[in-house]
Amino acid sequence: MANMGRLQTNDLEIGATEAVQQHYSRHVVATKPVSQRKLDFEHARPRWLRECMAEATGVFFYVFPGIAAITTFTLNAASPLGVTAFGGIFQIGWGFAIGISFAIITCASTSGGHFNPAITICFAVWQGFPWRKVPYYIFSQIFGAFMAGLLLMGMYWPEIQAFKTESITAGKGLVYNGGPASILCTFPNPTQTNLGYLFLTEFFVDSYIGIVIWACLDPANPFVSAQSAPFAIGLAYATMVWGFADIAISTNLARDLGTRIVAAIFFGGESFSYLNYSWIAILVNIPATLFATGYYEFLMRDSLSKIAKGHALHEHGEDGLHRHITRTGMIETGSANAIKDGQNGSDDLYKQDTV
């Protein structure tokens, strides 16, 4: 017999309403109790496996919509409807942006939501992320992009095969910007033979995104909430796609290397050797993001606000913090406001809630 209690009109049914329960006076019908078997299983499950799967899944969620949008546009670019029906760079930018947002929403609570080898390395350099985790995070990220490329090839296989035949018949080959291999990874235009120019373009784009990411993740930043950060980060990627995708950008080592391996499998080794460009697409992301996050850490970070809002501690505790304020003699307006907003009383001005 059905549980008649679930028919109460003042209850909200189990589902998405659980996430917004705090905003409603009504309550969500309770889920079934958690079994001991489930708790034992989750306890026995290795933490590293959860983190790896979250990073791989997040990169998949980010890469797949983006390359699917590229594929749709590329395969239909020559049709009479062309860009009008199947989008263009604007659609591609949104594909990556929303994909990144969903990746963060879905997986960041499990692994921290790096989804980029350069970001993982920056967390290890600046924020104390364990170096022992860096290799398997990076492997998982590349694997996620690889699986996205592989699935795309399977889903679009008949159309890609027809496009390959058409491209070979026209004497264009398979690896070039706008060709079959370019649905998976980036290639420069034939006229872009200046590697220095391509390097600087990629370095700027990755630095721009890196600064935005670091600002969004700064707990002292009053303009970005936990709810808006995924969309702000996604829009940073989209902005660079809209501005620079037509002159070859990669933006993420994992996104490029994972799909480039798939391109090499299906379209040949020229996917790595074409115009000697692949090293820029794969490697520039790391130094550019290190530069961007270093720029933020050295020139823009306000650690006093971070401490005041309860997201960090002074290395010598409250005594060390008071000594610092006494020694410096004054507090910048921004930090002072943060401390004022964060205080609960004069006796716990710098109280730390959680780390």
The averaged pLDDT comes out at 86
Largest sheet: 2 strands, parallel
Q: What's the shape?
A: globular
Strand content bin: under 5%
How many domains is the backbone divided into? 2
- Any idea what the CATH architecture of the largest domain is? Up-down Bundle
Order of helices and strands: EEHHHHHHHHHHHHHHHH
Superfamily (CATH H level) name of the largest domain: Glycerol uptake facilitator protein
CATH topology of the largest domain: Glycerol uptake facilitator protein
Unreliable sequence segments: 342-355
Q: Reading side by side through the largest sheet, how are the strands ordered?
A: 1-2
Query: What's the gyration radius in Å?
Result: 24 Å
What's the total helix number?
Answer: 16
Protein name: Aquaporin-like protein
GO cellular component, one term: plasma membrane
GO molecular function: glycerol channel activity; water channel activity
Subcellular location: Membrane
Structural write-up:
The protein has 355 residues and is an all-alpha fold. The protein has 2 domains: 45-299, Glycerol uptake facilitator protein, CATH 1.20.1080.10; 303-348, no CATH class. It contains 16 helices and 2 strands. It has helices spanning 36-44, 47-75, 83-86, 89-111, 117-126, 134-155, 157-169, 195-216, 229-244, 253-267, 270-273, 278-283, 285-299, 303-308, 317-328, 333-342; strands spanning 11-12, 27-28. α4 packs antiparallel against α9 and α5 runs antiparallel to α6. The radius of gyration is 24 Å and the shape is globular. The model is unreliable at 342-355 (pLDDT under 50).
